[in-house]
């Protein structure tokens, strides 16, 4: 090890401590972005799956959207935001659940309506609640 590194070690350890303390919020917002990228993908692939009447693919997309909107719902709940972002997450989760049931029943038009409803609400949340504001 080079002497310069040893001399800087206390400062580096202090920096590591600061970074660890900030990690809890950074992690969940980083995760949120990953959920969003997946929501982005599945909200489109479900429409393609429904158009070609592929029940298995559509149900898989719907289930994944249901899970991701559930995660988002818990995220807003944990932040104590009980208004629109929580409701919009809840709505999306319900629509995804309906789309799964409808697709399995062969009601592709109904499932398509539910899935389009999810896509229609992206802007409603983004316009007002994007980006996530730091708390505290
Ligand atoms: C309930 C609120 C809400 C809904 C509904 C929502 N989003 Fe988001 N989305 C956000 C927020 C908040 C951010 C910004 C996150 C941040 O601050 O890092 C975001 C960010 C994104 C991003 C950027 C992610 C990144 O890597 O930076 C994409 C893409 C995205 N959303 C797509 C969608 C799509 C597509 C839909 C609908 C199918 C949707 N979102 C529905 C709240 C929402």
Short description:
With 136 residues, the chain is mostly helical.
Per-chain topology:
Layout: H1 3-21, H2 23-51, H3 55-78, H4 84-104, H5 108-120, H6 122-129
Helix pairs in contact: 2-3, 2-5, 3-4, 4-5
State the CATH class.
Answer: Mainly Alpha
Largest sheet: none
Low-pLDDT sequence parts: 20-24
Number of domains: 1
Query: What is the averaged pLDDT score?
Result: 88
Report the CATH architecture.
Answer: Up-down Bundle
| Rg, Cα atoms, Å | 20 Å
| Oligomer class | single chain
CATH topology: the name is Four Helix Bundle (Hemerythrin (Met), subunit A)
Name the shape in a single word: elongated
In percent, how much strand structure appears in the residues? under 5%
SS field, number of helical segments: 6
Write out the distinct hetero groups bound to the structure: heme C
Q: Structural class of the secondary structure composition? A: mainly alpha
Share of helix among residues? over 70%
Distance between the termini: 41 Å
Written description of the protein model:
Helix 2 runs antiparallel to helix 5 (108-120) and helix 4 runs antiparallel to helix 5 (108-120). The chain has helices spanning 3-21, 23-51, 55-78, 84-104, 108-120, 122-129. Mean pLDDT is 88; it is low at 20-24. It is 84% helix and 0% strand. Heme C is lined by residues 29, 32-33, 36-37, 39-40, 43, 72, 85, 88-89, 92, 118-119, 121-122, 125-126, 129-132.
